[in-house]
Automatic annotation (TrEMBL):
<feature type="binding site">
    <location>
        <begin position="166"/>
        <end position="167"/>
    </location>
    <ligand>
        <name>(S)-2,3,4,5-tetrahydrodipicolinate</name>
    </ligand>
</feature>
<keyword id="KW-0521">NADP</keyword>
<dbReference type="InterPro" id="IPR023940">
    <property type="entry name" value="DHDPR_bac"/>
</dbReference>
<keyword id="KW-0560">Oxidoreductase</keyword>
<dbReference type="Pfam" id="PF05173">
    <property type="entry name" value="DapB_C"/>
</dbReference>
<dbReference type="InterPro" id="IPR000846">
    <property type="entry name" value="DapB_N"/>
</dbReference>
<dbReference type="GO" id="GO:0016726">
    <property type="term" value="F:oxidoreductase activity, acting on CH or CH2 groups, NAD or NADP as acceptor"/>
</dbReference>
<comment type="pathway">
    <text>Amino-acid biosynthesis; L-lysine biosynthesis via DAP pathway; (S)-tetrahydrodipicolinate from L-aspartate: step 4/4.</text>
</comment>
<keyword id="KW-0028">Amino-acid biosynthesis</keyword>
<feature type="binding site">
    <location>
        <begin position="11"/>
        <end position="16"/>
    </location>
    <ligand>
        <name>NAD(+)</name>
    </ligand>
</feature>
<comment type="subunit">
    <text>Homotetramer.</text>
</comment>
<dbReference type="Pfam" id="PF01113">
    <property type="entry name" value="DapB_N"/>
</dbReference>
<dbReference type="InterPro" id="IPR022663">
    <property type="entry name" value="DapB_C"/>
</dbReference>
<comment type="similarity">
    <text>Belongs to the DapB family.</text>
</comment>
<dbReference type="GO" id="GO:0009089">
    <property type="term" value="P:lysine biosynthetic process via diaminopimelate"/>
</dbReference>
<dbReference type="InterPro" id="IPR022664">
    <property type="entry name" value="DapB_N_CS"/>
</dbReference>
<keyword id="KW-0220">Diaminopimelate biosynthesis</keyword>
Length: 267
């Protein structure tokens, strides 16, 4: 067997982190070498993921974990508040970041890309690892050429920390690249309740729904004279993201620099 890719997981006890741990442990090409989380210290990462004990115990110091494990790749699905520092640390230690969290500014992404280039390693930040979601965004960007009037509605569980979602922001960026800015709606419209019309981006609106029982959905609604078009994607569980994460962990070993968006790895 070819050398395994040594993988560390940040946020290993979180809901996404456990899915990543499970994915790594079930792939013979990958080796789980570290699991980091602020809680559940000392608990076996495999057990946390619902698998037999792996021998990898959860620890709470990321720098120590990366230095001692010899990880090739850090998969990070932690919070926007911590992920930038985590990514900087990983790159400084020569560990390739595969990041599923959101909240990076364009300036931060540019800075991280330069650091990856200097270290001679690859990295990836992706708002969404679902292939279906990426296709939804691409289809929406194409449709915007012909249907420039649109609104985005994204739905997530009520515990999601950021709004709008990273996927909605990425979709908006792609759409803005394919249409001129048009301030939609009646110029005289007024919100009688603040936020009723959603967030403003490049002339259109983004609406974030947060409800218990919802996982992750997004639809882009296009309107024109006498017709409308809806492009929608639904994710039902976190396992939907794992084929993309698995692909990213393997591909990031073979290029230099930081990529923003999973679509760059889909060719």
């Amino acid at each position: 067997m070819a050398d395994q890719i040594r993988v560390a997981v940040a946020g290993a006890a979180g809901r996404m982190g456990r899915e990543v741990v499970k994915m790594v442990l079930q792939d013979e090409e990958l080796q789980l070498v570290s699991a980091v989380n602020r809680s559940q210290t000392g608990v076996d990462a495999g057990t946390l993921a619902g698998l037999p004990a792996s021998g990898i115990l959860v620890e709470n110091d990321l720098e120590r974990a990366l230095k001692s494990s010899g990880a090739d790749v850090l998969v990070d699905f932690t919070t926007p508040q911590t992920v930038y520092a985590n990514t900087e640390l990983a790159i400084s230690l020569g560990v390739r970041p595969v990041v599923g969290a959101t909240g990076f500014t364009p300036e931060q992404i540019e800075a991280l890309d330069k650091q990856c280039q200097l270290q001679g390693i690859g990295g990836l930040i992706a708002p969404n690892f679902s292939i279906g979601a990426i296709l939804m965004m691409q289809f929406a960007a194409q449709a915007a050429k012909y249907f420039p009037h649109l609104e985005i509605i994204e739905y997530h569980g009520d515990q999601k920390l950021d709004a709008p979602s990273g996927t909605a922001v990425k979709t908006a960026e792609w759409i803005a690249g394919n249409r001129e800015e048009i301030r939609q709606g009646n110029p005289q419209e007024e919100e009688t309740i603040e936020g009723a019309r959603g967030g403003y981006y490049n002339g259109f609106r983004i609406h974030s729904v947060r409800l218990p029982g919802v996982f992750a959905q997004q639809e882009v609604i296009f309107g024109a004279h006498g017709e409308s078009l809806k492009i929608r994607h639904d994710s039902y569980e976190r396992s939907a993201y794992m084929p993309g994460v698995n692909h990213a962990v393997k591909r990031v070993m073979n290029y230099k620099g930081l990529l923003y968006g999973f679509e760059h790895l889909m060719e």
